[in-house]
Design brief:
- The protein is an alpha/beta fold.
- The protein has a single domain, classed as TIM Barrel (Alpha-Beta Barrel), CATH 3.20.20.
- It is built from 10 helices and 8 strands.
- It has an 8-stranded parallel beta barrel, surrounded by 7 helices.
- It is globular, with a radius of gyration of 17 Å.
């Protein structure tokens, strides 16, 4: 993996993530800071991942950044002990709430959906507000969306970068629009994590101030700035850390898939 490929998608450390976030905040863009470290297979790895996420919370607080943190359940050790991973998410969320820092939870493969939703609900039941990513390429997402909304969990709708129940781009796009329309009709605030030109144009037309447009670092820089200047809520996903290989591979597979279908993300 060449340095240029990594630098497009991730940053080497927390200091760089803080500088990126400060610059984006000045442009009206919120940040979602992610300490890379998915698929932890040992208690040591889990401990180190938690320490990095805690450090991100402290940095957001210290520098008064407009930012949240996001975590993956595999980084918290769900592949080792599901209950312990849930408890780690609760402790991290409690720590973040004390600093008035938001917590978001990324979604991973189909086999982890139930556990991840349950962990987010466990936080909500303790009065710990979280945002949860849900993938529109998964059949069960409509039901999961209803469940988390009932518990006051803010959704982040994404198409999905993991194994899915459908890989038909038109079907995934149709599901995204249908789920988003249901939230818009009820006035439920949510984040739309997409670089799809058609979906973004549709959301801009119908968002009515309830949607935050979420983008990855490394993509859509023109669109982020344009939407922020137009008064829309915009967030950028900012990953940092040395464990970048799996994350970068997903990003490049995403672009390759778009190219194969004759499509491209927003500029």
């Amino acid at each position: 993996m060449t340095p240029g490929r990594v630098e497009r998608w991730t940053l080497p450390g927390l200091d760089e993530a803080v500088r990126r976030c400060r610059a984006q905040n000045a442009r009206g863009i919120r940040c979602i800071i992610a300490a890379l470290g998915e698929y932890a297979r040992s208690e040591r790895q889990v401990r180190e991942n938690l320490e990095r996420s805690s450090a991100a919370v402290a940095a957001i607080d210290e520098h008064a950044l407009d930012a949240s943190i996001t975590v993956k359940m595999t980084a918290l050790g769900v592949l080792i002990d599901r209950d312990a991973a849930r408890d780690s998410l609760i402790r991290l969320s409690r720590e973040a709430r004390a600093c008035d820092v938001g917590v978001e939870v990324d979604m991973e493969g189909r086999g982890l959906v139930e556990t991840t939703v349950d962990a987010a609900v466990a936080c909500a039941r303790q009065g710990l507000p979280v945002t949860l990513a849900l993938q529109t390429s998964i059949d069960r997402t409509a039901g999961d969306l209803e469940r988390i909304v009932r518990h006051g969990i803010r959704p982040r709708l994404v198409k999905g970068a993991y194994g899915a129940d459908t890989d038909d781009p038109d079907e995934v796009r149709r599901r995204f629009r249908a789920l988003a329309a249901g939230l818009l009709d009820r006035g439920v605030p949510f984040s739309a994590g997409t670089h799809d030109p058609d979906l973004i144009a549709w959301l801009v037309q119908y968002a009515a101030g309830t949607v935050e447009f979420g983008f990855l670092m490394g993509l859509a820089d023109e669109t982020k700035l344009r939407l922020a200047r137009e008064g829309h809520a915009v967030a950028e996903y900012v990953p940092f850390g040395e464990q970048a290989a799996v994350y970068v591979a997903r990003r490049e597979a995403y672009l390759a898939g778009l190219a194969a279908g004759g499509r491209a993300p927003v500029p």
